[in-house]
Write a structure and sequence with these properties.
single chain, 198 residues, mainly alpha, two-stranded antiparallel ribbon, elongated
């Protein structure tokens, strides 16, 4: 059976819209407490969408392209939060306690006569959640409009802004792992959009 071209040109954009919508729903449901299964399904839906746009020739109507672009950018920005938190939890095995302001709690190293053993912990890398949303939004928009150099700009700004807080190994590890997980998610979601609408 041969599929008429008109039906095919409607089916692929609809498929993309539904898969990206499904992935967005799954990540929103995992925002409060990241869960592996929904996030794995969401990642699978993004990869499936990526394969479809790589394999099938599609031409999307401008209104459909706008809808898919908005959905993909929202998925990139919102979905990176639970994914990054889950990746950090797996990487650190829960050894580093989180602070009230989105950072991590670190005790300064004890120095005899200068820093006591029971010195209070301080929160470093504060505001990481908000910074993550903004970084993924900037990266996704950059990729969708054809400016992938935005990734380098975001990483440079983030690195300069966090430089003074990266003295502790725990902070460096969290910064690197979190940034990679966040950017990888944003790039995949935005890549689907870029390949589908341009």
């Amino acid at each position: 059976m041969i599929v008429p071209p008109e039906l095919f040109s409607l089916a692929v954009p609809l498929f993309l819209f539904l898969t990206l919508s499904g992935a967005l729903v799954l990540v929103v449901l995992s925002t409060k407490r990241p869960r592996e299964i929904p996030l794995l399904f969401a990642g699978g839906l993004i990869l499936l969408s990526l394969v479809v746009v790589l394999v099938l020739p599609i031409e999307i109507h401008p209104i459909g392209a706008i809808a898919i672009a908005m959905l993909g950018v929202a998925l990139a920005a919102v979905g990176g939060n639970p994914v990054t938190r889950l990746v950090l939890e797996v990487a650190t095995h829960g050894r580093v306690p989180e602070g009230d302001n989105g950072g991590i709690m670190l005790r300064p190293p004890a120095v005899p006569g200068i820093v006591p053993d029971d010195a209070p912990a301080r929160e470093v890398l504060r505001g990481g959640t908000t910074i993550g949303y903004l970084e993924r939004l900037a990266v996704a928009l950059g990729i969708v409009v054809g400016f992938p150099e935005a990734i380098a700009v975001v990483v440079a700004i983030k690195g300069i802004g966090r430089f003074s807080e990266l003295a502790a190994a725990e902070a460096r590890e969290r910064f690197i792992i979190g940034t990679f997980a966040s950017l990888l998610w944003a790039c995949l979601a935005a890549g689907v959009v870029r390949l589908a609408i341009w």
